[in-house]
Amino acid sequence: MNAENKLPKQVFRSVGTRPVRPDGVDKVTGRARYGADYDMPGQLVGRILRSPHPHATIKKIDITKAEQLPGVKAVITSKDLPDLTNGDEDLLAILENCMARKKAYYDGHAVAAVAAVDANTAKAALKLIEVEYKIHKHVTDVDKAADPKAPVLRKDCITEGVSPAPTKASNIAAQSEFGHGDVAKGFKQADHIVERNFRTEQTHQGYIEPHACVASVSPDGTGEMWVCTQGHFVFRQQCAQLLGLDMAKLRVTSSEIGGGFGGKTHLWLEPVAMALSRKANLPVKLVMTREDVFRASGPTSATSIDVKIGIKNDGTITAGEATLRYASGPWKGSWAALGAMTAFACYDLKNVKTTGIEVLVNRPKTTAYRAPSAPMAAFAVESVIDELADKIDMDAVQVRIKNAAGEGTQSSYGPVYGPIGIGPTLEAAASHPHMSAPLKENQGRGMACGFWFNFGGQSCTHINIDIDGSVTLTVGTIDVGGARASLSLVVAEEFGIDYEQVKTVIGDTSTLGYNEMTDGSRGTFASSMSAIASVRKAIDEMISRAAIMWDIPAEDIEWRDGHAHATGKGHANLAPLSIADIAARAGKTGGPIAGHTELNADGAGVSFATHICDVEVDPETGLTRVIRYTVIQDAGKAVHPTYVEGQFQGGATQGIGWALNEEYVYGEDGRLQNPGFLDYRIPVCSDLPMIDTQILEIPNPNHPYGIRGVGETSIVPPLAAIGNAVSNAFGVRMTHVPMSPPRILDALEKAETETA
Amino acid sequence: MSMVVNSTINGDPIEFSCEPDETLMDALRNRVGLKGVKEGCGTGDCGACSIRLDGALVCSCLVLGAEAEGRKVDTVEGMSDGAQLHVLQTKFLEHAALQCGVCTPGFLIAAQALLEKNPTPSEEEIRYGLAGNLCRCTGYDKIVRAVQDAAKTMNKRSKSKKTTGRKK
Question: Which overall architecture, per CATH, does domain A39-136+208-296 show?
Answer without folding.
Answer: Alpha-Beta Complex (3.90)
